[in-house]
Specification:
The chain has seven helices and eleven strands. By secondary structure, the protein is of the alpha/beta class. A hairpin with a 2-residue loop joins β10 and β11.
């Protein structure tokens, strides 16, 4: 059986406001990355522009650089999303980090990629702020991909608890609800994943491992 191929698309945005660096929340990339590798997946890491991808410095606190070395290495030279031939991939996974709130929602390239995966029967997954990358995805019938779907993501309550809500261009929970998603929150910092068919979302950093495991299980069930 050929290796399953997973496309991980990360943010390339490194600043919320002057003096407030951001980027990828490392565990939301590194933990799924490690699990996909352990499952025998072939992984491509892309960002909108390609090149080095920023890591939120706050997410490095208490993290073993040695343990995350392989993941950090991947982030040094991401592939431009527009150069990826996505036809052979079984799943797309969007890690979070506050940077996603600034660059992913406006990307038509990402929106086309997400819709292509979903409408061709493949797995679409995101964790924490990663679902911001789903906001621009409109299905061929004209409806937002998330409309009527059970989803989760970083909640308004969690955003306010971080004290960063005023630096965000919008609140993710609010925007998902506005698009007609059935947003399912759990108590703050819960390990919580929602799966609606081939759409898998995790609420926060604590949900990264569970979201990745749900992707691996979905790929096994579909035979991809």
């Amino acid at each position: 059986m050929a290796k399953k191929r997973v496309l991980m698309v990360v943010t390339g945005h490194g600043e919320m406001a002057p003096g407030h660096p951001t980027g990828i929340w490392l565990s939301e990339f590194a933990e799924p990355y490690a699990l996909f590798r352990e499952a025998g997946c072939e992984i491509t890491v892309a960002s909108l522009r390609g090149g080095p991808a920023p890591v939120d410095p706050r997410s490095l606190e208490g993290v073993s650089r040695e343990g995350a070395a392989a993941a950090l290495k991947e982030l040094e030279a991401t592939v431009p999303l527009g150069e990826v031939d996505t036809a052979g991939f079984a799943a797309v996974f969007l890690p979070g980090g506050h940077g996603t709130m600034f660059d992913l929602p406006a990307s038509q390239e990402l929106a086309r990629t997400i819709v292509s995966f979903y409408e061709s029967g493949r797995v679409v997954a995101a964790v924490c702020h990663g679902p911001a990358g789903l906001l621009g995805a409109t299905l061929s019938g004209g409806a937002p991909l998330v409309r009527g779907k059970r989803v989760t993501g970083f909640t308004n309550e969690e955003e306010r608890a971080t004290g960063l809500d005023t630096l965000m261009p919008f609140l993710l929970e609010d925007r998902l609800r506005e698009l007609g998603a059935v947003f399912v929150p759990a108590p703050m910092w819960s390990d919580h994943v929602e799966q609606d068919g081939r759409l898998i979302t995790g609420q926060n950093p604590q949900s990264s491992v569970s979201a990745a495991k749900a992707v691996i299980q979905a790929l096994a069930e579909t035979g991809e």
